[in-house]
Amino acid sequence: MGSVTFVAATFLLCLAAGSLVAVRAEDPYLFFTWNVTYGTISPMGVPQQGILINGQFPGPKINCTSNNNIVVNVYNNLDEPLLLTWHGIQQRKNSWQDGTSGTMCPIQPGTNYTYQFQVKDQIGTYFYFPTTGLQKASGGMGMLQVHSRNLIPIPFDSPADEYPVFIGDWYTKGHKSLKRILDSGRSIGRPDGIQINGKSGKVGGSQTPLFTMEAGKTYRYRVCNVGMKTSLNFRIQGHSMKLVEMEGSHTVQNVYDSLDVHAGQCFSALVTANQAPKDYYLVASSRFTKKPLTSVAIIRYANGKGPASPDLPSPPPESSAGIAWSINQFRSFRWNLTASAARPNPQGSYHYGHINITRTIKLINARANVNGKLRFAVNGVSHVDPDTPLKLAEYFQVPNKVFEYDSIEDDPKEAKKVVVVPNVVNATFRNFVEIILENPEKTIQTWHLDGYSFFAVAIEPGKWSPEKRKNYNLVDAVSRHTIQVYPGSWAAIMLTMDNAGMWNMRSQMWERFYLGQQLYFSILSPARSLRDEYNMPDNFQKCGIVKSLSLPPPYTI
Q: What is the dihedral of CA 520, 18, 87, 152, to 10 degrees?
């Protein structure tokens, strides 16, 4: 099994000063050792090969506090390369640890790599997972919970307990089989079911309770959709949910009977055990799919008597009515402007609606056929990872030997023949940017941006035009990192690009990600200062054309 250790930063710096970045001495460290292996799992009740961390699926939970420094020594005992990403963790000044193929060389089989990052000025519900190939389809994922520091009040009473819930679609084919299907030019098709914390359940089936609640107490459910593609609806039989946090932001505490959660999204909701003491079903069901999928798990009251009712709470509507329902729910999500966040100032003190937009980038997703094979593209470019990670090529000052900047236009006027090349957008440090995500397809999309949170200011049907800005929420849009775009619709997000590095913007629908629906934002500090970005870590692995190159001049204070 792995281990976790907690020590003061100053003590750690004495142990391994050469491989660390300087941080304030009062910020503590958490140490983890993870052994990544194959093992047998049965999310759909059928034994299959899964990816385990320390023998677990889901993997070990990282439970930390804002500004903690996380050190994870990952031993890759698979027969293939591995990278882990920390979904939603902003990695301030530190895209070196982001865990994508554009920023890091993979951990080769039989070797290890130590990730080291700080959850700087963040709170909330996140998760980690493998980004290499289709490994995500076999596990290797776990929860990452970031609590507020003691001196920062949270806008609700401390719950009796916190319960992590991973929900997601699942394929009974292993990740290697799925990868072969995509490499052959075909789609992986529809998933086989929905897993809840690594298992699937049916109404009336024999199940071990997922969680136990005591009557009269309130619990925090941290819920993430970790699936491959499918949007889900989450609900608990007989119980309402008070939304309190979404992807790192405290929210206005509205009450919901059910919540849509799209691929890659997380939220926290308070649930009070105020019903008759017995069993109840926790329900996860698919959204906007031709064949509905449902899975259940048991929530048990302590000292309760009686089984859960077979009558599940009804799902939201589907088709166009369901899309309208889901958009309206999105619009009901609001940033809690009176709450304190990870930093000392109230989280709503950032008046993003008063900042002039310096650049508008429209990203249009597309399904394409290239040389007889299925690909997905953004503005006519289907991304492919080069042998040399983009960040390394840039840091060693040889980007022209690996990729070209700005292969896509900010405002594509017409569909172009899709090309398969690295997709890197050159962005200006500290510019305030508006990104329009336009979805002309008949399937829902989910987009994620590493390194940042953004203000999700609008989702509407149709095509975007500048006149649509009058409908933006410029006051209290939730600051988050993942957003859905409905069929034939668009979404608008706004952010200040103040985190220097190489950052992946991707479809969180993994078939699309693997086949090219992603890009990278290159954001360089012109000052080449450690105030803006860290140097390459001492333990960082080199690969590709930079493997034998000498280090460039380092960033300085």
A: -120
